[in-house]
Amino acid sequence: MQASGSADSDAGAYVEGDNALAAGEAANAIGNGATALGGGATAVAARASAVDFDALASGEDSIALGSGAQATALGASVTGTNAHASGAYSTASGAEAAASATQAVASGFRASASADGASALGSYSDASGRLGTAVGYGAIASGGATTALGFGAAAAGSGAIAIGQSSDASGAESVAIGGSTFFGLIPSRASGTGASALGAGAWATEDYSTAIGWNAWGNATDATALGANASADAVNSVALGAGSKAERANSVAIGAAGSERQLTHVAACSELTDAVNKGQLDAVAATANAVGRYVQANGAGSAAAAGSEALAAGSGASAGGARSYALGANASATQAGATAVGADSAAKGSNATALGSQAATTASNGVAIGYNAIANSGANSMALGANAGATGANSVELGAGTRALEANVVFVGGGNGSDGPATRRIINVGDGRIAAGSSDAVTGSQLNTTNQRVGAVETRVGDVDRRIGSVETTAANAIVYDDASRERLSLAGLQGTVLDNVGNGSIGADSRQAINGAQLFRSLSDAASFLGGGASVGLQGVFVAPNYVIQGSSYSNVGDALGALDRKVSDLDQRVSGADAAPRARMAAASSLAAQSEPVLDTADARASVQGTPVPASMAAPQAISSPAANAAINALSVGDGAVASGVSSTAIGQGAMATASNAVALGQGSVADRANSVSVGSTGNERQVTNVAAGTQVIDAVNKGQLDRGLATANSYTDTRFQTMADSFDVFKGDVDRRLDRQGAMGAAMLNMATSAAGIRTQNRVGVGVGFQGGESALSLGYQRALSDRATVTLGGAFSSDDSSIGVGAGFGW
Predict the structure, then answer these.
(1) How far is it, in rounded angstroms, from Cα 155 to Cα 171?
(2) For 163, 236, 283, 536, which has the most beta carbons within 10 A of its beta carbon?
(3) HEC profile of 638-682
(4) Phi-psi domain of 528 (left: phi exceeds 0; alpha: psi -120 through 50; beta: other)
C-alpha cells in the first residue's frame, strides 16, 4: 500500500479506538471500528466509514463515499461528491444530493429530501413533504404524503398526486395526470380540494371538480368536464363531449351554443324527475291538439303558475300563491289559496276570491263578485254586484254600486245614483224573534203592531198628565219642607225667591239667624275701607276691587301687591349685598283679565317676554315662567312650557327643558342637564352646536374648534417629531446591534476555522489561525494547543473583531 501527501503539509493519519483504520494525509479515524481512507477523510463515530478526499462520517454506522461527502447522522449513507446525509438512516446518492430528514432518500444531482420518509429521485428533484415522493428531473413533492412523477411535476396539497410533465396538483387530495399543452404553457392542473385533472392541459380549479380530456376545464365546485375542450363553469354542472359547455348550476350540457348534440336511445321516463323521449312528447302533443276538446285559449301573453300546485289559464294570467287559481286574460292570484276568475281580475289576499271582469280584492278571505267589484283591506269583507265596494272588516255589500266603509255591517245601498241607488228595500223578510237578546230583523208588519200599541199608551199617558197638572196648580203656592226631617226648605221661584221685610239678625260667633241686605252692605263697606286702593261697594252690593300701583305696575289684589313688594325688596337686597355695579336683571309679573298673563323680564338695556302664568320671584323659592312651580328646588329657575328645574340652584330655560342636578343649567327646547355643575344645550340624540365661541384665555375657559385644531396640529407635530427621533434612534441602535451580531458571527466563523485548521496536526504543540467574515464585518482568531500526552490536551484560543473579543480555555482527556 502506498499513500502520498501534499507539499504544504506533512500531517500524518490519526487513529483512536479499537479496530480503527486511518489512511491518508491528515486522515482521522476516531471510534471503535471507524475507517477513514483518503486525504483529510474523517470518521469520528463508532463503525463510521469515510472514503475519499475530505469525506466526513460522524454518525454511528454511517458511510460517506466521495470527495467532500458527509454522513452526519446515525446509519446515514452518502455516495457522491459533496453529497450530504444528515438524517438518521437517510440516503443521499449523487453529486451534491442532500437527505436531511429521518429515513429520507435523495438520488440524483442536487436532489433534496428534507422531510421524514421523503424520497427524491432525479436531478433537482425535491421532496419536502413528510412521506412525499418526487420522481423526475425537477419534480417537487412539497405536501405531506404527496407524489410527483415526471419532469417538473409538482404535488403541493396533502395527499396530492401529480403525474406527467409540469403537472400540478396543489389541492389537498387532488390528482393531476397528463402533460402540458401549447408548448408547455398550460400543464395539467388540479388546484381544488379533491379535484381531478386527467389529460394534457386539463384544469380542475375548484373543490371536488373533475376535468378529463385534452384541455378540459372544471371551473366550479363539484363540476365535471369530460371531453377535449369541454368546460363546466357552474356549481354541480356536467359537460359531456368535446367542446361542451355547462354554464348553469346543476345542469348537464352535451354541447355548446351553435354546437348542440342529440341525446339518443333515451328510454321512456317513469319518475317525475326523469327525462322524456320524443315518443312521449309526441303523445302529449297529440292529446293537446286532439279534435273534440272544448278548452281553448289565445292571446299574446304567457300564463305563469309560480305557486305550488297553482293553475293559471289565459293570456298574461298569473298564479303566484300556493294552490292559487287565475283564469282569464291578465287575471292575477298572488296569495295562497287565492282565486281570480275574469279578465283583469285580481285576488291579492290570502284565500281571497275575485269573480268578474276587473273584480279585485286585497283582503284576507275577501270576496268580490261582479264587474269592478272591490273588497279592499277589510278582512272577511264581501262585495257582491257591479261596482260594489267593501272596506270595513267583516262587512257585506249587496247590489250594484253599494258602498260600505264600516266594519261588521250589511249594506244594500249607498250608491251615488249612477253606479247604484242610495237606498234599497229588503222584501220577503220573515218575522224575526222578539225577545231579550234577539238580533233578528223585524218586518214591517211586526213594526206596525208595535206602533199601534205605543199609540194607545200615549193616549193613556196624556190623561194622567192632565190630572197631574191640576194637582200642581193647586199646590203651586204652598211652602213645605223638603222632607219629613224638616232640616231643609227650598223655595220654588224660577229666578229665585226674594225674602222681604227681614229684620236685623244677630251677628256673632254662635248666631244662626238670617241677616238682611243692609247688614251685609255695612260689612262690605268696612272691608273695602280697610283694603284701601279705591276699593268700594257699588250698586246691587257689587264689590269693586282695589288698584295698587307699585313701581309703575298695577295690581288688583293684595296678594299680587305684596308679591311685587317682596320681589322689589329682594332685588334691592341682592343689589346691596352683592355690591354689583352692573345693572341687575329683575323679574316682574303683571296680572291681566286676559286668558293668559305676560311675565316681563327687565334689564338695564334689554326686555324679554314669555307667555304663561306668572309666579312670584323669590331667592328662597324656584321661579317658573310658563307654569306654576310645584315641588321645585331652592333657588331654581324654570322658563318655558313644561320646563322643570328640580335641582338645587338649577336653571331650565326652554320648552320641555329639564335641569335635575344641583347647580345644573339646561338651555333650549328639550335640553336635559342631569349632572351637577353642568350646562346642557341639548339631550342624548338631540345635540346642538355652540357657535361663535371666542377663544379661551383661562385654564377653565371653553375652547373653540380653531383652538382645538391648532392644538391637535401641534400635538401631531410634536408626536411626529418625537416618533421620528425615536425611529432614528432605533435605526442607529438596530444598526449597532446588526453590526455586533455580524461581528459575533465573524468571530464564530474565525474560531471554527482556527480549530479545524489545526485538527489534523499530530504534533505536541499546535497553533491555529482563522479569519471570519459576516455582513461586512471581519474577525481574527488565534489558538494554541499543547498535547500533554497521547490522551490529554490543553487548549487556549481567542477571537477579535473591532471592539468585541472573546477568549476560551479548554482541556481534553481520553482513555
Answers:
(1) 8
(2) 163
(3) EECCCCEECCCCCEEECCCCEECCCCCEEECCCCEECCCCCEECC
(4) alpha
The amino acid at residue 51 is: V
pLDDT digits over 307-339, tens only? Answer: 898 898 888 899 999 999 898 889 999 999 999
Band of residue 414 on the pLDDT scale cut at 50, 70, 90: low
Instruction: Specify the 3-state DSSP secondary structure of 317.
Output: coil
Determine the distance from the C-alpha atom of residue 705 to the mean position of all C-alpha atoms in its chain, rounded to a whole number.
Answer: 33
Nearest residue to 545 via CA among 521, 536, 594? 536
Provide DSSP, 589-640: ----SSSS---EEE-SS-EEE--S------SSS-EEESS---SPPTT-EEES
Residue 776 C-beta-side C-alpha neighbours within 13 Å: 5
Q: Give 722's DSSP letter.
A: H
Q: What is the pLDDT of residue 278?
A: 82
Enter the CATH code of domain 740-813. 3.30.1300.30
Comparison of pLDDT for 599 and 799, the residue scoring more: 799
Contact 631, 605 (CB under 8 A): no
Burial of 442 (C-beta count, 10 Å sphere; 0-12/13-18/19+): middle
Mean pLDDT of the chain: 81
Q: 208 vs 142, 228, 754, CA distance in Å?
A: 21, 19, 59
- 631 versus 806: the higher-pLDDT residue is 806
172-188 per-position pLDDT tens digit: 999 999 877 766 678 89
What is the pTM (predicted TM-score) of this model?
0.41
Q: Which range has the worst mean pLDDT, 4-13, 340-349, 357-366?
A: 4-13
| 567 membership: H or E segment, kind and range | helix 558-578
Q: In what order do the strands lie in the sheet with 311-313?
A: 311-313, 325-327, 339-341, 353-355, 367-369, 382-384, 396-398, 410-411
Amino acid at 528: A
- DSSP annotation of 306 reads -
- DSSP, collapsed to helix, strand or coil, labels residue 164 as coil
Instruction: State how beta strands 217-218 and 792-801 pair.
Output: unpaired
Q: What is the CA radius of gyration of the chain?
A: 57
Length of the chain in terms of residues written: 815
Q: What is the CATH number of domain 307-426?
A: 2.150.10.10
pLDDT band at residue 594 using 50, 70 and 90 as cut-offs? very low
C-alpha cell of 782? Answer: 488565534
Rounded Cα distance, 530 and 597, in Å: 28
For the domain made up of 160-248, the CATH class stated in words is: mainly beta
Alpha-carbon distance 186 to 176, whole Å? 13
Q: Is 104 helix (H, G, I), strand (E, B) or coil?
A: coil
Out of 1-5, 75-79, 271-275, least confident range: 1-5
